[in-house]
Specification:
The complex is a heterodimer of chains A (269) and B (344). In chain A, the strands form three sheets. Chain A has a nine-stranded mixed β-sheet, sandwiched between helices. The mean pLDDT of chain A is 94. Chain A is globular and about 65 Å long. The N and C termini of chain A lie far apart (61 Å). With 269 residues, chain A is an alpha/beta fold. Chain A has a single domain, classed as 3-Layer(aba) Sandwich (Rossmann fold). In chain A, 29% of the residues lie in helices and 30% in strands. With 344 residues, chain B is of the alpha/beta class. Chain B folds into two domains: 185 residues, HUPs (Rossmann fold); 145 residues, 3-Layer(aba) Sandwich (Rossmann fold). Chain B has eight helices and 15 strands. In chain B, the strands form two sheets. Chain B has a nine-stranded mixed β-sheet, sandwiched between helices. In chain B, strands 12-11-13-14-15 form a five-stranded parallel β-sheet. The model of chain B has no long low-confidence stretch (mean pLDDT 90). Classes of the chains: A alpha/beta (269), B alpha/beta (344).
């Protein structure tokens, strides 16, 4: 028997990891210096979630993937020019902050509202995907909060593998301690899956997919509802880049035997 | 006045994970700094008696337990139901737990359910003017923030290895059993097992003294103009066998594997450290053939003593980040290191 899914992927922008990031304190709390000027990427783990969603949709005809993003509208538009060429999806946008110092409970509240408001949402086919953590806040809090707000009881975090069984059941591999995977069998949707890296390579850019996506992306961006995340009850007292410069002793032109002996002695110490 | 609840789940043998004692250590420190704060312990698992005895001498005023076959396995719905019941029953305002995969998955949801907030990957706790502050890292370990919250209950999930573990002799204690009524929907998921890699191929060892980081240089052309991937694999495998070190890898090396290139047969994304990988904690780290940018260096933010082998004396991975940089051919050095280690 074939099944189709309604996969909603939550993901947004993060600063390009090659940029030097410097925190600054503002009246509203910490932020990044020149945050609006920093080049951004689509969050890597959310990207894996999106590729897995597209892969799942391809395997199960009739499935639909919707990307729901909360981020500054202009930054989302930049990133979607790239990510939009990778895989086909529909798009819903919320215009608001996506920085690391935002409150995940508030982010999750806004995303859950947006998901609940998607036209034709069918909970019996609903899978909510996202990265298990973001490369900004790195908390791993948002997806569980969305699950609670949507009343979904089955949540998986650090997912590397999803298989659909002939009866519609889902087999899921989640990362646990010691480089192992916990294997679970879920009766089926609705479920929330926070993806780690999965196993799929990054899809190649496909301009045709890009053209198709952009037809829906631009109107969605124009309609993006402004969202404020006030960080109620949350007070930051500091945000610092650690000063961890070490005095590196450089051993150059030393014989291999000498280096090896020193390393072995250090390991055994 | 704060009521501190330490939440922990038991292992399949009824014991507590080592990290639970670290959460308890953090809670004891907080309690000492907060006048009138009460300390309680909440345990969940198939059975909790032995675990309760192990923490009985901690000075907790109450030990609460949720037990039964439904709570034996790591499953969101049942773990969240247990944590919710324990938190409600104890009237906790601060809930501390160790950052195990199980707790990281369920506690943020419980915080949402109870109208509270959750902070994960906490590395430091402090008290000033009667307020609790926590520190955690942002932007993949690139900056550290310190914060406090008004909302309660506040779930604080501490990163393993960051807190001093509490220790005490086992003692008898009465466990207050907390009843949890599970809806059928809580059993929609069945845990079917744990997938291990073969014992000799398990290269991720969180308790290892040494983290060995392999960079993409191992797969590049060497001085003779050829690649030597099979030899690299043998050298690294032998080194891991002789030292029982944990293996980390830079993203580029992992990605080469994902693209179908022959790299290291035992390498997966689970080994990846850095911007999109893990930031493990080990006393020592040895990086080899890595050429680094900031995304790589964050991978060993929490490594104590660091040494590196690289052909590039200006390597960004190593300079200012490592204590010692050996400018040498990693193939030759590792071959000799293995020889010396094998001699004993």
């Amino acid at each position: 028997m074939s099944f189709s899914f309604q996969v909603v992927v939550c993901g947004s922008v993060v600063p390009d990891p090659l940029q030097t990031l410097e925190p600054v304190m503002t009246p509203a709390g910490p932020a990044l210096k020149n945050e609006l000027m920093l080049p951004v990427w689509f969050d890597p783990w959310a990207g894996h979630a999106l590729y897995e969603a597209a892969h799942l949709a391809k395997q199960h005809p009739g499935s639909k993937v919707t990307l729901v993003s909360l981020g500054p509208k202009a930054k989302l538009q930049q990133v979607l020019m790239t990510i939009g060429q990778k895989v086909p999806f529909e798009f819903a946008a919320l215009d608001g902050p996506a920085g690391g110092f935002t409150e995940p409970a508030e982010t999750a509240g806004a995303l859950a509202e947006a998901i609940a408001a998607l036209p034709g949402l069918d909970r019996s086919r609903l899978l909510v995907f996202g990265g298990w953590e973001s490369a900004a806040r790195g908390a791993g809090v948002t997806l569980q909060t969305i699950a609670e707000k949507l009343g979904i009881d089955d949540v998986f975090l650090g997912v590397d593998e999803l298989k659909v069984w002939p009866d519609g059941g889902l087999e899921i591999a989640e990362r646990i301690e010691g480089g192992r995977h916990q294997m679970s069998r879920c009766a089926g949707p609705p479920a929330v899956l926070g993806w780690a890296t999965g196993n799929l390579p990054e899809p190649k850019n496909n301009p045709q997919v890009g053209m198709m996506n952009m037809r829906a992306v631009m109107p969605a961006l124009q309609k993006a509802r402004p969202v404020k995340l006030p960080g109620e009850g949350l007070t930051f007292t500091a945000a610092n880049v650690p000063k961890q410069l070490r005095q590196t002793r450089i051993v150059k032109d030393a014989p291999v035997d000498e280096i090896a002996a020193e390393i072995v002695e250090w390991i055994r110490k | 006045m704060e009521t501190i609840l330490v939440l922990a789940h038991t292992e399949s043998d009824g014991s507590l994970p080592a990290t639970a004692f670290e959460a308890l250590g953090a809670a004891k420190t907080l309690q000492a700094a907060l006048p009138d704060a009460k300390l309680m312990i909440g345990l969940a698992g198939e059975r909790v008696g032995d675990a309760a005895k192990a923490v009985a001498a901690s000075g907790a005023t109450r030990v609460l337990g949720v037990s039964g076959p439904d709570f034996a396995v790591s499953r969101y719905a049942t773990d969240a139901a247990a944590a919710e019941a324990l938190t409600r029953s104890g009237g906790a305002t601060l809930v501390l737990a160790a950052g195990t995969a199980r707790m990281l998955r369920c506690l943020p949801g419980v915080a949402a359910r109870l109208g509270g907030r959750a902070d994960t990957h906490v590395t430091n706790l402090s008290v000033a003017d009667g307020k609790v502050f926590v520190s955690r890292w942002y932007y993949r370990q690139r900056m550290e923030g310190t914060l406090t919250r008004a909302q309660r209950p506040w779930f604080i999930v501490v990163d393993p290895g960051t807190q001093p573990a509490w220790s005490g002799a086992p003692a008898q204690v009465a466990v207050e059993e907390v009843a949890v009524s599970l809806p059928d929907s809580a059993r929609r998921t069945t845990v079917t097992g744990v997938r291990h890699v073969a014992a000799d191929a398990q290269t991720i060892r969180p308790d290892a003294e040494l983290l060995f980081v392999a960079g993409a240089g191992w797969t590049k052309k060497q001085a003779d103009g050829q690649t030597h991937v099979p030899e690299a694999e043998t050298l690294i495998r032998d080194f891991l066998r002789l030292t029982r070190a944990s293996l980390g890898s830079s993203k580029s090396l992992v990605d080469l594997g994902g693209e179908g290139q022959a790299v290291l047969s035992f390498l997966s994304h689970l080994n990846q450290v850095g911007q999109t990988g893990a930031t493990p904690r080990h006393p020592k780290g040895l990086s080899t053939c890595c050429h680094g940018e900031e995304p790589h260096t964050v991978g060993w933010r929490f490594i104590g003593e660091r040494r590196a082998i690289s052909l590039d004396p200006n390597c960004g991975w190593a300079r200012g980040k490592a204590d010692v940089l050996y400018v040498a051919d990693a193939f030759a050095v590792l071959r000799k290191v293995n020889e010396l280690l094998a001699r004993g």
